[in-house]
Automatic annotation (TrEMBL):
It is found in: Cell membrane. This is histidine kinase. Residues 260-472 form the Histidine kinase domain. It comes from Lactobacillus acetotolerans. Its EC number is 2.7.13.3.
Length: 488
């Protein structure tokens, strides 16, 4: 069943149930009121006749002779009221019958003690006064004089006359129910259409998103839960659009990496293959063989570095490495890295400077810290030609910061946004400057810093250079610690 019909059915059920409950209560109230008023009216008639029967004037009951009662019955008949009178011996004295009709002993005893009996329908209840062609409702009232029973009167009227207002109420209720159903059907359709139309719009928008359209946005007023859902949907689509853009950018960088990796691997493999062929066919002079073998080893190391960087990144990214963190002097590590990369800096006519206190304590994995600094400084060398690279270290509260500043080509805001992404190259031509052509160096640095519970920041402007600042906190003050990290 469609949702609009479910909503309409729900609204109609609520309306019908409400009207039925109210109608039942109203009919029950009218029924009780009708019978209660009828009983009261009959009791008033009976009481008036009882007073006449108990009067001592002119012999008391002599006033209730047959002629008087016939005349009274004739008058009351116009009001659909009928009566029967029994004497104190439980014999019906009016109207006269051939058989001496009597009330049952239980009923007579009850009446003898001054209690009245109300009969709602003489054809349905116990036949106190006998059954009749037309159903009657009325009262049996004892007449007492000084607590002495002098007679009993049954006075009643036809049930159909008493229930006439009940029939009218039922008829009016039925008409009201029909009108209510018609109006309710129209209103429920309008309300259901209003609600389901919002859901239909949301469903159509969802289908568009599923088809790859992330520009869908739903107008909403935040007036109900569906509007709130539409707002959440809009935020979700914007997030998906952003994620899709990042995924496409990642795919593009990966494709570029694969092309670059294939190119970079082809060159050393071609070199190695050429040298091996030359050695096989003695095409290389004897005095050139040591140089050729050295070149082959250099190219082999280059291939190994490309493979190791990828494997290293995957291990770091998936928290498969274990950090052995200790407290050591970072100044000595920075000096060692300066010596190690001094030759690379000189090739680019760069000056590599280390500025830090002689005693610079840091709490980290020494080997991984060395790897971080090598990657950061090597990255600075790649982008700096005939400039200066300054490595500055200092202590802060509960931690140590190391910054690597270069006077190279710098980066724009878009490049800064993706600089720590895997395979990203701020300048694709940087492969010509030496090592680091895989595009994984800064991604590895970022992952290692995060596993150390530290943070990394970058500031850069085009043609003004870049500054990478890492912060590694002391033991017990780490942030962003990976769950699988084993701390020393």
């Amino acid at each position: 069943m469609k949702l609009i019909y479910q909503h309409m059915l729900g609204f109609l059920l609520i309306i019908v149930t409400t009207v039925s409950i109210i109608g039942y209560a109203e009919i029950n109230y009218i029924s009780n009121q009708a019978y209660s008023q009828n009983y009261k009216r009959m009791e008033e008639y009976a009481s008036s006749l009882g007073e006449m029967a108990a009067s001592n004037e002119r012999g008391g009951t002599a006033r209730l002779n047959s002629n008087f009662l016939n005349q009274l019955q004739f008058v009351l008949q116009g009001d659909n009221v009928h009566l029967r009178i029994f004497n104190n011996q439980n014999v019906q004295i009016y109207p006269k019958t051939r058989d001496n009709l009597q009330l049952s002993k239980n009923v007579f005893n009850t009446l003898s003690h001054g209690q009245e009996i109300r009969i709602k329908n003489n054809n349905k209840q116990d036949s106190y006064v006998g059954r009749s062609k037309d159903a009657y409702t009325g009262v049996l009232v004892p007449w007492l004089n000084n607590k002495k029973l002098i007679g009993i009167i049954w006075i009643g009227s036809r049930v159909k006359n008493v229930e006439r207002p009940i029939y009218m109420a039922k008829h009016n209720l039925l008409n009201a129910l029909i009108v209510t159903l018609i109006v309710g059907l129209i209103l429920s359709f309008i309300l259901a259409y209003y609600s389901t139309n919002k859901i239909k719009r949301l469903s159509r928008a969802t289908n568009k998103v599923a088809a790859g359209n992330f520009d869908v946005q739903l107008p909403h007023k935040d007036s109900d839960e569906i509007d709130q859902l539409a707002g959440n949907f809009n935020r979700m689509v914007r997030a998906l659009k952003k994620a899709d853009g990042e995924i496409k950018a990642q795919e593009k960088r990966r494709d570029q990496f694969m092309a670059d990796a294939a190119h970079e691997m082809r060159t050393p493999l071609t070199t190695i293959n050429g040298i091996l062929e030359g050695l096989q066919y003695d095409a290389i002079p004897e005095e050139s063989k040591p140089k050729s073998i050295a070149l082959m080893r250099q190219e082999t190391k280059r291939l190994i570095r490309l493979v190791n960087e990828n494997l290293d990144y995957e291990k770091i990214r998936s928290n498969q490495i274990m950090l052995t963190k200790t407290k050591f002097n970072a100044h000595k590590v920075l000096n060692d890295v300066q010596i190690q990369l001094k030759q690379n800096a000189e090739k680019s006519k760069d000056k590599l400077v280390v500025e830090s206190p002689i005693d610079l304590p840091i709490y980290a994995d020494r080997d991984r810290f060395t790897q971080i600094m090598v990657n950061l400084i090597q990255n600075a060398i790649q982008f700096t030609q005939d400039g200066t690279i300054t490595v500055t270290g200092k202590r802060i509260e509960h931690g140590t910061t190391i910054s690597v500043h270069d006077t190279g080509i710098g980066m724009n805001s878009k490049q800064i946004k993706y600089i720590f992404e895997r395979f990203f190259k701020a300048d694709p031509s940087r492969a010509h400057h030496g090592a680091g052509e895989s595009g994984l160096g800064l991604a590895i640095v970022s992952s290692l810093i995060r596993q150390h519970g530290g943070k990394i920041e970058v500031k850069s402007k085009p043609k003004e250079g870049s500054t990478f600042t890492i912060t590694i906190f002391d033991k017990g003050y780490e942030q962003f610690v990976a769950k699988k990290e084993l701390m020393g």
